[in-house]
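1st attempt posting a full record on here, be nice pls
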Amino acid sequence: MTGNSERRDTAAGQAGAQRVEAWWVNPALYTPITFLARVALRLFFRLKVRGYENIPHGVGVVIASNHQSYLDPIIIGVSNDEPVTFMARESLFRKRLFGWLIRRTGAFPVKRGSADRSAMHEAIRRLRAGARLVVFPEGTRTLDGSLGRVRSGPALLAEKAQVPIVPAVIRGAYEAWPRSRKLFRFRPISITYGRPIAAPAAGKGGAREELTRNLQDSLESLMAETQ
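the predicted structure (as tokens):
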């Protein structure tokens, strides 16, 4: 990728780091944490961001990314100049300090392995309010760095909230912190945002399946382009 996307090879706009207005985060925590994480990722992991201009502004959006490591939510958070929000597994919120922290920096709980209607309603509510909701459609971290099968969750959210999906591909995070390692190591990391995929009209037959296939194809194309 060249041109504007190459010029956006920093973790996010510096001015954006100071502008936190979303009601789902605590600015007193979100701003300094994001700033410090951005500095660390740029310094130790040489984080590069490409295609950021593909994310629509002023509307809700589902950011659907491959899942390489525990670093992924941080990478996406610092590469955006607006606050992002996450669906995180419920067990993380049982850890008192950590649960308190992630809740105030944009996360909300979801029960994995079940149809958690309350989490879905909260996700749709935030999307309709203009949130950037991050999801990992593979459902879990990769075992070998490759992209797995994309599930239908992002398409469901996009259809219900009538917002676009932006595919995102992270590279290098698997090498930095694979599932087989307890601690991370310093490796170059990049994230590339693809062009948004518009949500179909609500209730259109077969639209969710088609949107899921389009997302799978977009992520696979981005994986191939960023090798």
